[in-house]
Automatic annotation (TrEMBL):
<dbReference type="InterPro" id="IPR051476">
    <property type="entry name" value="Bac_ResReg_Asp_Phosphatase"/>
</dbReference>
<dbReference type="InterPro" id="IPR001932">
    <property type="entry name" value="PPM-type_phosphatase-like_dom"/>
</dbReference>
<dbReference type="Pfam" id="PF17874">
    <property type="entry name" value="TPR_MalT"/>
</dbReference>
<dbReference type="InterPro" id="IPR036457">
    <property type="entry name" value="PPM-type-like_dom_sf"/>
</dbReference>
<comment type="similarity">
    <text>Belongs to the Rap family.</text>
</comment>
<keyword id="KW-1133">Transmembrane helix</keyword>
<keyword id="KW-0732">Signal</keyword>
<feature type="repeat" description="TPR">
    <location>
        <begin position="291"/>
        <end position="324"/>
    </location>
</feature>
<feature type="repeat" description="TPR">
    <location>
        <begin position="249"/>
        <end position="282"/>
    </location>
</feature>
<protein>
    <submittedName>
        <fullName>Serine phosphatase RsbU, regulator of sigma subunit</fullName>
    </submittedName>
</protein>
<feature type="transmembrane region" description="Helical">
    <location>
        <begin position="409"/>
        <end position="428"/>
    </location>
</feature>
<keyword id="KW-0812">Transmembrane</keyword>
<feature type="signal peptide">
    <location>
        <begin position="1"/>
        <end position="23"/>
    </location>
</feature>
<keyword id="KW-0472">Membrane</keyword>
<feature type="repeat" description="TPR">
    <location>
        <begin position="209"/>
        <end position="242"/>
    </location>
</feature>
<dbReference type="InterPro" id="IPR019734">
    <property type="entry name" value="TPR_rpt"/>
</dbReference>
<keyword id="KW-0802">TPR repeat</keyword>
Amino acid sequence: MHKNITLFLFFLLIIASFSLLQAQDEQIDQIKSLKETLSHVKNKRAEMNLSNELAMAYLSANFPDSAIRYANRALDLSHELISNDDEYQALNTLKASFLQKGMYEKAVLYEIQLAAYYEKINDEANLTQTLKEIGDTYRNEGVYGSALQYYLYLLKIREEEGNMKGIVNVMNDIGIVFREQKNYKESLRYFIDALDLLRKNSNLVEELGETYSNIGTAYFYMNNYDSASHYFDEAYKMKTKQGDLHEIAKAINNLGLIQRTRGNYTEAIKRFTEALNLLANIHSDDFLTTNIILDNIGNTYLKAGDLKKALEYHQEALYVAQNAHIKERMIASYQSLVETYKAMNDYKNAYEYEHLYNLAKDTLYTIQTAKQIAEMQTRYDSEQKQKSIEILSKENEINSLELKRRNQFLLFLGVGLILAAILGFVLYHRYRFANKANKLLKMQKEELWERKMEIMSQRDALEEQSKELSLALQELDKKNHAVVSSLNYAYRIQSAILPQKNELEAVLSECLLFFQPRSVVSGDFYWLGQVPKSNGGHKIIFTAVDGTGHGVPGAFMSLVGSSLLKEIVHTRQITSPEQILIELDEGVKETLKQHDTHNQDGMDLALCVIDYEENTLEYAGAKNPLVMILDNELHVFKGDRYGIGGIDKAHRHKDFHKHLINLQKGATFYIFSDGFQDQFGGNEGRKYGLKQLKDFLFSIHHLPFAEQEKKLAEELAAWQGTKEHQTDDVLVIGFRV
């Protein structure tokens, strides 16, 4: 069955590739014709129409970057010329282009603009469809707050329309969002409300099966397995009656979950396999359900103790989620792989996948913020208690003085009855004394009352400040969460683009990769490609690139560089290193419009082309060198003195030069960025320097590469010490013949 799924996916890929190749020649001819026409157009409206046509043609030919460029031009002109139809067409193309690139966070921004456009022209049907797409995109990306916002807006519209089918579908969507947030009680409430509406509208049969299934899932996560089993059975009966094989497969998967909770692992795997085969037989492209079923099979094998099969299915589940860009399922698959590797005592892989999982589920900052607010509230409460104690103490003083005065009055009154004649004069003076004491007490009372009012006023002010501070902290938390999410998303994109260590090892056999970004994402990057030769064999092209800046700005440059290298090497089949650098330089200038903006961003790099059949290595460099160590001697091949990108008035045309090196057994090669040599540290707080780096590489070149990576990390940490922070991204690549 496992092979069937792989063959099915491969079959879909072959059909799609064949269709694409068949249509590509016609599309390229169309693009050339449109570009030729556009080059002679001077009228802005004609330019706008042709830009839209070109954008759609590039999109059809699977060139989303070019489609985005022309669609943006059409969008700008549509705003200038106030053309609603062309604005709509450009927005649609931009949305589709970013979806084609798998950049869902960008695509959803254009979906939101489309929704605003439909609302402006009162296109209710397309508005509701787009709101649904926005909610689905945010839900699949795990941005549940935004998903809920758009689903609730859509629910309001459906209720105003009186569209029962639409109301039920949105209620199910909202219930799923709460379920993904593990708020199962609220999730169940929406599913039950949907079921109540369905029972009042007997014609909505299709939605009934899906709602039964959702209710069963909510009960399942609430550990109420009897109720879950009941609703799963009802869903299966309903979907079987409708004959929808795709929905039947989902229902069978749910029945497998019940068998697994009861410990019937063999029966559970049988159910899951039946569901998977059903999806394969109907050539379903529902990769979300496919991933869930694969993960369920893996978890069942894990519970049954068959760790090898558990790992196999979890890896395939992750592969499906990654290729379909379903981030919520990628997170679930990461977690499953962590548990599987832990069970296998493979803690290295368990740690790597736990790191990927934690990047997506980072809630540390939220917890810290909650703690800070709690501490501030505690301090506020303590201050209020202390002020209350001071007020009570003052009131006790007043009561004590009043009691003392009454006792004195009674004493003198008693003595006066016995010695009225004698004490008449004394009583007169005591009266005057008591009168003064009363005035004094009255003044003290008034002062204390004013003080009490002042304290209460301060308390109210503190409460207001506390509320304002709490709101400010909440806003700061939201902004910080958005920044962290963006950085994590950028990290996942960059990690997906960079070659994995095992890919380098597959073509270079013995190799070293020491990559230590300064921030979450890196301006340094490396790239690997293979190009088949006409007489058999391959040329291997790889490079270590030092982009302008680091962090998010640097990461953007790495995306530009990777994309251009892919186009130059794979699409245009250019394999000579000096020519690759010339084309890359022109590509950066064009992409960043440097002739117009005078932007000077770019990159330095060392690029190698290995031909094992000819036993040669070709090297060209933009500032960065190639180091070779052979027969215990170190040789340095210098790059040209200018970098990639930027407008250099002294060198309007940059000529890069190629070095040809015959490969000899035992030779060790290194290429690197300037991050290691520019690191400040040591006793004098100076830069590490290129000479010291070459000497250190020479001292460790005889070691296995795994040991060299460890030595490089130790040397960088020792040089940096405790006083210096990492200055720049660090990248060192080595390989041995």
